[in-house]
Structures are given as structure tokens and as C-alpha cells.
Amino acid sequence: MFLLEVVTVLFVMNAVLFIHEIGHAVPVLMRNKKARVEIYLGPRNKEQKLELRLGRLTCYLTIAFSGLCRVANSDELPSATSKQNLLFSAGGPIASLIVFILFLYLSSIIPGIPGNIFNSAAFMSLSVFLFTAIPITYPSFFKNLGGHKSDGWYILKNIKEIKNQAKTIA
């Protein structure tokens, strides 16, 4: 029974991370029909991972505690505007927040073990939202994230750029 619980927690956690990364991918795929996006769960490599292709989206999946979304062919595309970068940065946290609300609602209407799983998934989604939306540089002890900046950091950066552009025009 314990092994089943561990597998369930790992599956739910990775599903929550995957949804967060999909939130980053959607704005890019919608803004440019030539964009190709890659999602990595775990380290940014393709070795020993399940490869899943969905049109212009390629996912490299494994059991992980972190994820990454990147534009695979950014050098072939026009530069993104600050507003487009803001949508990319905010897409993951927004997806996590929406999934938190959805799973919390489902946990309130579905009884028993499935409801408990939705409740756990809701709070994992909330944790991912908070962990990524707070503007910080991750400390080095976070294996795959150490030294990288959070989505919240990029959101603030892009908001400042948009404000500066508006001042320049005015």
C-alpha cells in the first residue's frame, strides 16, 4: 500500500509540474505558427526520458521535481516583445493557480480516496504557484534550479520593461 501511495504522489506531482510548463508553452505556440517548444521535466537533457510529440510541442518526461519550458527554434523567430515575454513568464504560474482552484473544487465534490488525491494535487499546484511566482533567484542547493531566476522574477522584469517603454513613448 505504501508503494502505491508513493507512486501516486510522484505521478500527481509530475502532472502538476507538466501542467505548469504547458502554461508557459501555450502563449508561445499561439503567438507564432512556426514556433517549436520543448518541455523538460527534470534536467534539461533528452537522455533516458519519455519523448512525447504533440504537434510543435515536444516533451521530455521523467520523474522529476522541476521542469523547464523553452522555445527550441527562437533564433528562427522574430524577437518576442516584453508583453509576449510577460505572457510566457506568467503562463506557468497562472496555469498552476487555475489547476489549484479546479482541483480544490473537485476535491470538495468527489468523496473518498479520489477526492483526497484531488485535494493533494490542489495543494501541490498551490505550492508550485507560490514557489515559482515569488521573484527570487533559486539557491544553489536546488539541484536543477540553483542559480536560475523564478518566473516571478521574470514577470517583474517584463512589467518594468513595459512601464519603461510606455514612459519612452509618452
Automatic annotation (TrEMBL):
One of its GO terms (biological process) is proteolysis. Belongs to the peptidase M50B family. The lineage of its organism: Bacteria, Bacillati, Bacillota, Bacilli, Bacillales. It is found in: Membrane. This is Site-2 protease family protein. It comes from Planomicrobium okeanokoites (Planococcus okeanokoites). The chain crosses the membrane at residues 6-26, 85-105, 117-138. GO terms for molecular function: peptidase activity. Its cofactor is Zn(2+). Residues 10-149 form the Peptidase M50 domain. Keywords: Hydrolase, Membrane, Protease, Transmembrane, Transmembrane helix. It is a multi-pass membrane protein. It comes from the Bacteria. It holds the Pfam family Peptidase_M50.
